[in-house]
Amino acid sequence: MSYTYRSKLIVVALGGNAISKPGQEGNVAQQFENTSYTCNYLAGLVEQGYQLVITHGNGPQVGNVLRRVELAAKELYRLPLHICGAHTQGGMGFMIAQCMNNALVERGLKQRCSALVTAVEVDRNDPAFQKPTKPIGSFYRKEKAEELQREQHWDMVHVPNQGYRRVVPSPVPRAVVEEPLIRKLVESGELLVVGGGGGIPVARDEHGRYAGVEAVIDKDRTAALLGRILDAPHFMIVTAVERVAVDFGKPGQRWLDRLTTEEAQRYLDEGQFPPGSMGPKIEAAIEFLRGCKPGDARALICDIEHMGDALAGRSGTEIVPAG
């Protein structure tokens, strides 16, 4: 990889609000509208000379696919979770690439963006498979939940005041199956959408053969892995808030402009970043920077509108290796 692309390469992890806004139905037209808005800001980064490798979440979308599968179960065969993930990754990749290309055309830029359906390898012996924790899909009444446990062998948990919901394992991403191709495309200067929804989880048997597994990989952890694989100097996690805060929502709330990995880990250990919100993003940033020296790389957490400002140091929260 040339130094120019190395210094300007950003792995961008788009949060759910970049595609589906809270309170919306989340239909296809709304997704395209939201994605176009996001891609206008992403194209602005390309205009500044940055090369992007984009990843994204797919929680609401894969939940809708699973719901369709359930509603059609008496008429059509069921789809396994990894195939549902592949379907949403392909459809959303197409949407993001199309919106990016339209934004690039509007700015008179010659670059084009392509989407690559991506499988991510996990370990069959990952402890996550013994303790599923990732909620997916719809809520059910107790009787239906017991039926699904019995017939589909689903793991279910009770959520007070809402019902029962399926939980699946969330194993650690170990390798990206398409890594050689992604490397070649990045080295040639391409703009990519890869690893959507954390990637399609696959595991190898004793003969080295891949097979899909019933799991969901955290998208930010996969994005961090991609950043390390590609030796990217910038890892940007795009979320709903402009900066990270400690004592969030409390009278002493304090916004953070800059953190070292050591400080971030300390706040994480103190419970400042809950597992259901900022926690996974901080963990991914720390993992991305693991083994780096000051000046090697940085992670940024910001919102859509301030991506450019965050890169320039005027907004967002920057996380850097401890000195």
Chain-wise SSE layout:
Layout: H1 3-8, E1 9-14, H2 28-47, E2 51-56, H3 59-71, H4 81-106, E3 113-116, E4 119-121, E5 134-140, H5 142-152, E6 155-159, E7 163-168, E8 175-176, H6 179-187, E9 191-194, E10 200-204, E11 210-212, H7 219-229, E12 234-239, E13 244-246, E14 254-256, E15 258-260, H8 261-269, H9 279-289, E16 298-303, H10 307-311, E17 317-320
Parallel strand pairs: 1-2, 1-12, 2-9, 3-9, 4-10, 12-16, 15-17
Antiparallel strand pairs: 4-8, 5-7, 6-7, 10-11, 13-14, 16-17
Polypeptide structure, described:
By secondary structure, this protein is α/β, with parallel strands linked by helices. It is built from ten helices and 17 strands. The chain has an eight-stranded mixed beta sheet with strand order 3-9-2-1-12-16-17-15, sandwiched between helices. Strands 8-4-10-11 form a four-stranded mixed beta sheet. β10 (200-204) and β11 form a beta hairpin. The protein is globular, with a radius of gyration of 20 Å.
List keywords for this structure.
323 residues, 17 strands, 37% helix, 8-stranded mixed sheet, alpha/beta
Structural class: alpha/beta
Strand content: 15-25%
Query: Count the helices. How many?
Result: 10
Biggest sheet: strands, sense, closure? Answer: 8 strands, mixed
Q: List the helices and strands in order.
A: HEHEHHEEEHEEEHEEEHEEEEHHEHE
What is the residue-averaged pLDDT?
93
Under CATH, the topology of the largest domain is which? Answer: Carbamate kinase
Query: What is the general shape?
Result: globular
Order of adjacent strands in the largest pleated sheet: 3-9-2-1-12-16-17-15
The CATH architecture term of the largest domain is 3-Layer(aba) Sandwich
Q: Write down the Rg.
A: 20 Å
**Could you tell me the number of beta strands?**
17
- The residue ranges in which pLDDT falls below 50 over 5 or more consecutive positions are none
Let me know the CATH homologous superfamily of the largest domain: Acetylglutamate kinase-like
Q: Helix content range of the residues, please?
A: 25-40%
Query: Can you tell me the number of structural domains?
Result: 2
